[in-house]
């Protein structure tokens, strides 16, 4: 099986699709599909200055922060029109929107460098150091 | 009615997902003469809307004014009569110059958030902190408080001991039904109740629902309008608008039935040994059972484990 991802957004005039918002909610939500984020969630996102955010989800107090994705990376939301019935057939996805950063939320706990999500992003730098090509490394040294 | 419009405007101008304080100036006589102060709450039980804590205070030798205002057991008063008394308190000359008041509107969101903290904060704690905050506030503003009367639904002894510790120079009386025993508590109860009623009347849904109090009712779980609201206004992902106290069992049960299941991280309660490593099943001491998959899979380095990273293919 191979996976194809098609990006037709290059032709889009609408800047919004390139800068969608992504929310990382600290609980398991057993739902798949659209959510009324702008109606039920965004009105209650408050910035206490200095980048500390608060919000509320299902009655739970949330503390948040904006986590930019690592340099050179973009988040993408993919959609699939039809999922093939057979497991061996190729699958085709389209890029529906892109995002540059994530609003990361903790339940009643200030986000910190020790959060798993933030630590997981460290892997990108380490992977580059281990698996990156020599060329990349010399480039970096030059910079 | 101007006074009530004014109250509504104040309620409207504040963020209804947060708490706020609304209080009168301290009458100058209350800065000189020793005063008694009453504390009461409104809207403790409802699943909708804020809980309001109210206080009223006046010089001890001016208690006649309270009676002439008609401050009696507020439960026995009609809504109109309560509105009337509050209007007099706000506009009538001798009342205004002798009786001060304050109200804290505790938002339904604050109540849910407190009860759903990692370290839970009960409604009783929220209540007590509000009462203490209000008393401190008017003392800071210069009121000379020497007696405090508090209405309580819970056991009075503990509450009384706590308040006496915080305010050692004030004579504290905490009792059930203080509302009908002390006119100053009735006055406080009227401040609280009228504020709560109007907070619901002017409630604006920031979620954009076009509804008002005639459709969601009093907020008591027994009210048929409130019941209907709780049943029908469920959002699959977010549950309810922030008018609702999520931590009430009425709301919790309905969301279990009608909304997507949401599971937050479990907080270990101190003293519980549910998953204590000491209670391993006895079979674990015999030859290790190898699960097929687990045995084959190469164990991941701790680095990945700590970061919840694994090699699953999300496209499978």
From TrEMBL, chain A:
Family annotation (Pfam families): RNase_H2_suC (PF08615)
GO biological process, one term: RNA catabolic process
GO cellular component: ribonuclease H2 complex
Superkingdom in the source lineage: Eukaryota
Full protein name: Uncharacterized protein
Automatic annotation (TrEMBL), chain B:
Gene Ontology annotations for the cellular component aspect, listed alphabetically: ribonuclease H2 complex
Region (Disordered): 268-300
Sorted UniProt keywords: Endonuclease, Hydrolase, Metal-binding, Nuclease
Residues binding a divalent metal cation: 40-41, 151
Catalytic activity: Endonucleolytic cleavage to 5'-phosphomonoester
Molecular functions per Gene Ontology: metal ion binding; RNA binding; RNA-DNA hybrid ribonuclease activity
EC number annotated for this UniProt entry: 3.1.26.4
Family as reported in the entry's similarity comment: Belongs to the RNase HII family. Eukaryotic subfamily.
Name assigned to this protein: Ribonuclease
């Amino acid at each position: 099986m191979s996976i194809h991802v098609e990006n037709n957004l290059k032709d889009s005039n609408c800047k919004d699709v390139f800068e969608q918002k992504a929310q990382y909610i600290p609980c398991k939500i057993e739902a798949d599909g659209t959510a009324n984020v702008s109606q039920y969630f965004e009105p209650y996102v408050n910035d206490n200055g200095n980048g500390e955010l608060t919000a509320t989800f299902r009655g739970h107090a949330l503390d948040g922060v904006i986590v930019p994705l690592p340099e050179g990376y973009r988040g993408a939301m993919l959609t699939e029109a039809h999922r093939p019935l057979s497991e061996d057939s190729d699958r085709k996805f389209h890029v529906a929107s892109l995002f540059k950063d994530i609003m990361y939320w903790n339940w009643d706990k200030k986000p910190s460098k020790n959060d798993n999500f933030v630590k997981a992003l460290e892997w990108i730098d380490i992977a580059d150091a281990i698996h990156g090509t020599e060329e990349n490394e010399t480039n970096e040294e030059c910079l | 009615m101007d006074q009530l419009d004014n109250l509504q405007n104040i309620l409207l101008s504040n963020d209804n997902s947060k708490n706020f304080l609304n209080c009168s100036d301290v009458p100058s006589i209350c800065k000189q003469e020793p005063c008694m102060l009453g504390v009461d709450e409104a809207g403790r039980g409802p699943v909708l809307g804020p809980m309001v804590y109210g206080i009223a205070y006046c010089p001890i030798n001016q208690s006649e004014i309270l009676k002439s205002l008609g401050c009696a057991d507020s439960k026995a008063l009609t809504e109109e009569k309560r509105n009337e008394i509050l209007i007099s308190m706000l506009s009538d000359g001798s009342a205004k110059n002798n009786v001060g008041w304050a109200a804290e509107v505790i938002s339904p969101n604050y109540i849910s958030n407190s009860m759903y903290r990692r370290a839970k904060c009960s409604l009783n704690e929220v209540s007590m902190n509000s009462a203490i905050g209000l008393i401190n506030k008017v003392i800071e503003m210069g009121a000379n408080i020497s007696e405090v009367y508090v209405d309580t639904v819970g056991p009075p002894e503990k509450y009384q001991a706590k308040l006496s510790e915080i305010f050692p120079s004030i004579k504290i009386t905490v009792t059930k039904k203080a509302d009908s025993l002390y006119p100053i508590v009735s006055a406080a109860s009227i401040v609280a109740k009228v504020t709560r009623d109007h907070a619901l009347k002017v409630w604006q849904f920031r979620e954009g629902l076009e509804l008002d109090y005639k459709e969601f009712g009093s907020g008591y779980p027994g009210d048929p309008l409130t019941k209907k609201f709780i049943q029908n206004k469920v959002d699959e992902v977010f549950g309810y608008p922030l008018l609702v106290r999520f931590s009430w069992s009425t709301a919790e049960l309905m969301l279990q039935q009608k909304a997507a299941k949401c599971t937050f991280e479990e907080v270990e309660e101190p003293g519980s040994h549910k998953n204590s490593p000491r209670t391993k099943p006895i079979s674990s001491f015999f030859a290790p059972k190898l699960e097929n998959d687990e045995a084959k899979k190469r164990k991941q380095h701790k680095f990945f484990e700590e970061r919840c990273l694994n090699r699953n293919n999300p496209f499978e």
